[in-house]
Amino acid sequence: MKTRFLMLAVMMCMAAVTFSACSDDDDDDKSINVPESVVQALKQKYPSATGIEWEQKGAYFVADCWLDGKESNIWFDPNANWLMTESEIFWNDVPEAVQTAFGSGEYANWVQDDYYFLLYPLQPMQYVIEVKQGNQKYQLFYSEDGGLMNTVNVTGKDDTIYPPKV
Questions:
Q1: Per-residue pLDDT for 83 more than 90?
Q2: What is the rounded CA–CA span in Å between residue 69 and residue 164?
Q3: Four-residue CA torsion sign, 64, 65, 70, 73
Q4: Residue 12, domain member (yes or no)
């Protein structure tokens, strides 16, 4: 009986030490000061955006939110100018021309990881297919008609897609 009690007491102490070492996510709140003009620009551009969480990437303010059932990142500059919207999509949402181009391209046998579409104020929409093979990871940027516009090696790097410099 003493052995069971001792083992139970030791296990409870270990659990208490383990859980007390865990951080509370609420303590990790990295609140940033988003200018009201940026908040209003988001509301005006995307009034249906939900679950909005802000982060700052360099000089940019990024609203991580949901748009039309898609996880999206909406980028603004400090002057509240909308620069880009990146939305995660499924393979079935990728236009057939892009699917065909990818399927006949150099990376067709790589493992497909993620898919995005990118909207810009002045540039045409782009589609991004992230692919992996072994420890290599690439982002393939396609035009809506299936033209491969750019290939970016993001192996071991930050794979954030930034707005183009104007």
A1: yes
A2: 25
A3: negative
A4: no
For residue 68, the number of C-alpha atoms closer than 13 Å in the C-beta half-sphere is 6
Instruction: Annotate 92-147 with three-state secondary structure.
Output: HHCCHHHHHHHHCCCCCCCEEEEEEEEECCCCCCEEEEEEEECCEEEEEEEECCCC
Whether 18 is in a domain gets the answer: no
Q: Which of 85, 93, 87 is nearest to 121 (CA)?
A: 85
127, amino acid identity: Y
Query: Is 134 a member of any domain?
Result: yes
Whole-number pLDDT of residue 91: 97
Nearest alpha-carbon partner for 135 in 114, 153, 148: 153
pTM over 0.85: no
CB atoms within 10 A of CB 111: 11
